[in-house]
Amino acid sequence: MTDSIMSKAATMEIPINSNGDTGTLPEDDSLEQAAQLQWSLDEKVGSSRGTRDLQQVMVSGPNLNETSIVSGGYGGTAEGIIPTSSIKGSNMHHSSSSSSMVADDATRGVAVEKLETMKKWGLNTYKCTKQMISERFGRGSRTVDLELEAQIEVLRDTKKKYENVLRLARALTNHFYNMVQTQHALGDTFADLSQKSPELRDEFGYNAETQKLLCKNGETLLGAVNFFVSSINTLVNKTMDDTLMTIKMYENARLEFDAYRSDLEELSLGPRDAVAMARIDAAQEQYQVQKDKYEHLRSDVIIKLKFLEENKVKVMHKQLLLFHNAISAYFAGNQQQLEQTLKQFNIKLRPPGADKPSWLEEQ
Fold first, then answer.
1. Distance (Å, rounded) from C-alpha 300 to C-alpha 306?
2. Running DSSP on this structure, what letter comes out for residue 73?
3. Which of 61, 105, 260, 301, by CA, is between 20 and 30 Å from 153?
């Protein structure tokens, strides 16, 4: 509507009277009204746009992610505009890629380390198996320490015999425990019959007292025998086993030492070029490592065998004396001597009904 009015006003003619003055025409008022209308519309449109822009800025605020960096001076082209969001995304992508590269390197390092360990283990197992087969078929040589191997054989034979002593002592304990329980039940039966049989009260009475006395002495003897069994069990299944475990490690070290020694001897008989010399140097290093390990374990075995022998003599001297004195006093009916034997070896008996530990002892 405004455009039509302005176009109409532009095409109107202004007549001039005879005096050179413009005449008053009806269209003058319409032209002035059109100009005022155009000015008011422009003012309203401008104010409404400014209000909307201000409200949008106040509500949403500036978007930092969409901020742009303009390179170049004023009036430059749009090619110099670099969005900051692209810079931020590139930095995040660079940091994430760096962390992933570090994690990949760590994983790769662990995998390589495991692979090297498996490779060394496989090579060592192959050489030891080859040496073992060669020794069994009499084609390979082995390192022999006659004195030490004789001591080891004596220890193994001694352990078998002590295990037999331990087995028999446990059997004796079980049988004697059953006998004591039978004597206890028999004494209670005799005591009950002495109350119910007036004509045989005395006979049942002193038999009941005898069985109770035998039961008491039997429990004392069981304490001594149990202490004997416990000490033998510690000597056989802990002290001797510990020494035999060291001997097992020593024998494995001896096998590895002979395997690398044989490998070094085979390489020494071969050609002497650069590659062969490098292999000989590596084999020499491995041979020295295995030799040091073998000699160290050999020294440990010698020391443990010495201390084991001394400990065995002390323990068995005490335990055999205890066993002899307790058995002799029991079958001699010497209750005082039997009790004195337990005091001599610091053996404390459990009171009747104390076979099961209390809840405080179980904690």
1. 10
2. S
3. 260
